[in-house]
Amino acid sequence: MTGTQGAKPMPDGADGADEVFIEVDGVEKVFEVRKKTGFLKRERRQVRAVDSLSFTVARGEMVGYIGPNGAGKSTTIKMLTGILTPSGGRLRVAGIDPSRERTRLAHRIGVVFGQRTTLWWDLPLIDSYRLMHRMYRIPDARYAENLDRLVELLSLASLLDVPVRQLSLGQRMRGDIVAALLHDPDVLYLDEPTIGLDVISKARVRDFLRELNSERGTTVLLTTHDLQDIEQLCSRVMVIDHGRLMYDGPLAGLHEAGESERTLVVDLERELPPIDAGPSARVVKVEGPRQWLAFPASESAAPLVARIAAEYPLADLSVREPDIEAVIAKMYADRATA
Fold it and tell me: ABC transporter domain: from which residue to which, for each copy (predicted)?
């Protein structure tokens, strides 16, 4: 799968100019856990978090990496950053083995974990950035330029002197993204970057990531439960479940493979019989003037909305995205019965 959206020049000392930037080949990660089975007795068993996982990501590509909780997404990212060592297989990022050369790789990557911060909790935001400046040995001019640009793009100027512990979740998330990008990484790993954010904060983060990829060619690997993140940012999506890659391709293909449906919630001006939605949609629920219509997630909602607006007294409507865990469960069930 290509899907390359752009590329930036290789930095000095980079390891070759091959299009493949991330390479995962037959990677496994097995954890040994102990379970109490009786008085002073514990049983050891192995949990395979990642199982024979293989994929490549091209330089400058934005890829959605999704799956249900416990599927192995965060474990994969931790191996890609060198936090965890694979139990088997081969893994390279920019030609570097993350577990063997973690310090060297750190200057090439940026990481944002949505539920954990890399900022210093009791310090003002700007102090965390000054520490990053020293830790990564960023040249002064480059640091100042990057800080000004990122702070402006993510609207953080008024928050630089605020202690991190006083920031809202959305403000802190934007602060973490700045921290991850101060040293101009070649690849950015985002683990649930919009979790808990309001609509405005989500839109701001998405716009920023789109601009970052377009202008600088930064490679982005994004894990999320919010399909709107994937739809607005990624041309390619990979689905992992039980540690195995189940799907790799465009989002429309995922919807087709999982036979997923979106829901159009229609509020009419008065109570009416079920809407005649045509062959591609069906009414699944009616409560007074509100009706719920299901239609294939791979199709645009625009024709359906236009038809209803032209033929019915419409007061309001909204589109609900399919639940990604339900889509994956359907795919998994189909494979099990195949």
Answer: 22-267
Helices (H) and strands (E) in the chain, counts: 10, 13
Find out whether 285 and 330 touch, Cβ atoms under 8 Å. no
Pair type for strands 244-249 and 236-241: antiparallel
- Answer yes or no: CATH 3.20.20.70 is held by domain 20-255: no
Domain regions of the chain by residue span: 20-255, 261-321
Give tens-digit pLDDT for 204-249. Answer: 888 889 988 998 899 999 998 777 788 889 989 999 988 999 899 9
Q: What 3 state SS string does 87-116 have?
A: CEEEEEECCECCCCCHHHHHCCEEEEECCE
Specify the pairing of strand 20-38 against strand 41-58. Answer: antiparallel
Tokens 């101009």 map to which residue?
184
Considering Cα of 171, then 173, then 177, then 180, what sign does the dihedral take?
Answer: positive
Query: Among residues 133, 141, 222, 149, which one has the least CA distance to residue 183?
Result: 133
List, edge to edge, every strand of the sheet that includes 41-58.
41-58, 20-38, 88-93
This prediction has a pTM of: 0.76
> Which of 46, 93, 64, 88 minimizes the C-alpha distance to 3?
64
Strands of 236-241's sheet in order across: 109-113, 187-191, 219-223, 62-66, 236-241, 244-249
